[in-house]
Amino acid sequence: MMVILALWGFLNGYTTSRTLKFFGTTDWNFSAIVAAFTLPLFISVTLGFELALAWLTRTALRYSFKANLLRIVGWYLLNGSMCYLGAYRGYMQKAVQIPSPVGTVRRPIPAMPYHMSILVVAPVLGFIQFASMYAEFSYLLDSVFRSHMYAMFGFLLLNMIMQVLIVSLLAILQTYVQLCYQNYEWWWRSFAIGAAGALWMAGYALLFLVTKMKVSDFAGDASFIVYIAVFIICYGCAAGAVAVNASYYFVSKIYSSIRKD
Known about the structure:
single chain, mainly alpha
């Protein structure tokens, strides 16, 4: 499993390199460094902190401290190598072209109504995402942290596909409404819309910890929080990336149909 997750570093590096090249980056090494030192380093440091905490509190470990540390370091080295390979392959590809000419004069953005504020839109659309996966997420928490048998892998795959579709549709919907209000700054707004579901997941995970987890020591609570934080941040980044790509595809299709005189 660790090897499979590390191999996803190739996709991480490839996507990062393609995205940064679209914004004008000319050095693929910079793209590789960003891909290898942002999310993978956070995951490695977080898991290392949880391992050190378990060792200091003399918590029972499935493997020795040295074996676990070698697993984390080995995963990071393999992931970093795949990030570099993916970044190089992505940079060698032809840069994505802008579908229509962009004006050099920055237009002022009109005032947005209150219901279009990101503080209103993100929680509402994030709740829709969370509601669509609540049953599966609750089942996963029971299986991982309460030792319940998990046997719904087909349903998990179906739920993942459904989440991609839901996040994409919500991002496209809010981007369309935003463009109708002449607000063209949709990049980070789309990412926030996609990642908003992670906030509801974090709230439910804390509720799960308080009401259902039978943990009586600090190390157990800390381990739960560390693993949940890694999972939720990874989900937020993935959902945000899906939302941005869906919005970009939608915007490019709209502006590619404009006649160029």
